[in-house]
User: What shape does this take?
Amino acid sequence: MRSFALGLCLTLVAIAARGQALGAPQDPAQAKGAPQGCPGAGAAAGNAPCAAVTVSRQGKASMDAAAHNARGLAYKHSGQLKLALTEYDEALALEPNDAEALDNRGVIWNAQGRYDRALVDYNRAIALSPSDSSAYYNRGNTYANMGLTQKAIADFRRALKVEPSMVLAREALRVFGAAP
Assistant: This one.
């Protein structure tokens, strides 16, 4: 699922970059056919043309957040953790409830030994998307790094409950000598 999401995010980044290179308007209100004088995000609900622009802006924010998240993943995989963290921060500034960006940022905090921050991000990601096994698995890794073995085992088991085929969680349990 994550590899599909990464591929989709990278495709969105390419499309967005291509659109900007072709001179596509940055602001949806500037798009051909958009009504003049539409207010920003506070568009009146009764004003359908302006509401459409507001939805379009929200869609752009989501696409921009996905692009930042995709760049963060690329930086993380190339070992550039500070740049990855910056990209995840940007994604979350645009979409504060993006569970995937929170989970990804938690991985960076964990790698930097900032376990308290990692746990905050994982807990928020889990609250937003309790059916995503990745946040449970990653929180388990953070607990393991903190020496909290029982909490780590509990999270690896939660990850397996959500996604029974998750090999990483099963392997982590094996390392700790715990049954799934």
The longest helix spans residues 48-77. The CA atoms of residues 2 and 179 lie 26 Å apart. DSSP finds eight helices and no strands in the chain. Helices lie at 2-21, 48-77, 81-94, 99-111, 115-128, 133-145, 149-162, 167-175.
